[in-house]
Amino acid sequence: MTKLLLRALAGETLPTPPIWMMRQAGRYLPEYMATRAQAGDFLSLCYNPDLATEVTLQPIRRFGFDAAILFADILLVPQALGADLWFVQGEGPRLSTISDKTGLEALKPVEAIHDTLSPIYETVRRLAGALPQETTLIGFAGAPWTVATYMIAGRGTPDQAPAHALKRDEPLIFDALIERLTEATIAYLSAQIDSGAEVVKLFDSWAGSLEGDDFDRYSLTPMRQIITSLKSTHPSVPIIAFPRGGGDRYAEAHAATGADCIALDQSVDADWAAAHVQINGCVQGNLAPEHMVTGGDALVSETRRIARAFSGGPHIFNLGHGITPDADPENVALMIETLRSG
Ligand code: CP3
Asked: Residue 22 CA: which ligand 1 atom is closest?
């Protein structure tokens, strides 16, 4: 019996979709807060294989999701390339910035990333041995554009303006950074797969701010390069791509990236996506995360509507973005119960 998530990724239409949630291990869970306190802070948690394994397993124990996602962060790759990284409680990530040739040349070579990231591979190995046999282990990385936006601005930005400015003013430096991140991401995901990840996902959270040809050039193309490379060395490992905010351009995403599954954010209408994206292969999504806060009848009816819209093809049920810290775990249980009771 093959795992449900892998069956959907192989193109099978299932009576009940496999279910997991972005940020399923996180601050809405009291047990996560307790383990994070034990680790001291978020980054210490990411680099502690014992505790990172524990928090990855917490939502599996509590809810019985069909997949576990490795507990780590997309910004560990810039850190492994030599950037300074820290998290400001209640605000988010801060990094040293890259804006010129000197900054680019100061980055470590791709081979050096494993020195920093080896504890992450150890977490993957432990998870591969600890998960229930029906649960699929997902590894992940940020896509080059999204990771570059943080490396250039030094933090999250509403419109990614510093990265757009570098792309316009210093195209050679910008392209070299994207290329370095593409190579590092291939090395990082290959190592996760070699350690036991059964599926990998690329998060391009800020793809939506790329306009015109830039969407193809800086979101879809680097993802395709990563996927082509991983497929050549690990042909049987399915890959999920998440060009968040892609809008109508989601229709070309399977063909343009070569991904086995395209993750949809909640701004995409499910009926439209069934007709224009799911016809090309498996899709994942796309319940608005707000329902995990508000719950009630709206949660039940939206969950049913999305499951129905995608019921004619391969589908993985998920939120359109990560669950937020103010979510109620009871609402997560209600979503799962709604799906599994038909
Ligand atoms: O999904 C999971 O459960 C797996 C672990 C995971 C985390 N971050 C843990 C995390 C994954 C897959 C990510 C991806 C990630 N990280 C993305 C892409 C997905 C997305 O949300 O768009 C991005 C952009 C980041 C960078 C990042 N990490 C930001 C901007 C922040 C601060 C914002 C926030 O939610 O607090 C983080 C912190 C972070 N990453 C937390 C967790 C559980 C919260 C940290 C804490 O415990 O204080």
From this structure: 1
Domain total in the chain:
1
- Among protein residues, the one with the nearest Cα to ligand 1's atom 40 is 73
Taking the model in full, what pTM does it have? Answer: 0.98
Residue 93 Cβ contacting ligand 1 at under 6 Å: yes
27 lines ligand 1 (CB under 6 A): yes
Asked if residue 26 has its Cβ within 6 Å of ligand 1, the reply is yes
**Active-site annotation holds for 36:** yes
Is the C-beta atom of 69 inside 6 A of ligand 1? yes
Range of the domain at 128: 4-341
pLDDT tens per residue, range 253-274: 999 999 999 999 999 999 999 9
Annotated catalytic residue, options 150, 188, 218, 250: 150
Can you read off the two tokens belonging to residue 295? 């719950």
Quick check: is 168 catalytic? no
- Give tens-digit pLDDT for 192-242: 999 999 999 999 999 999 999 999 999 999 999 999 999 999 999 999 999
The CATH number assigned to the domain holding 90 equals 3.20.20.210
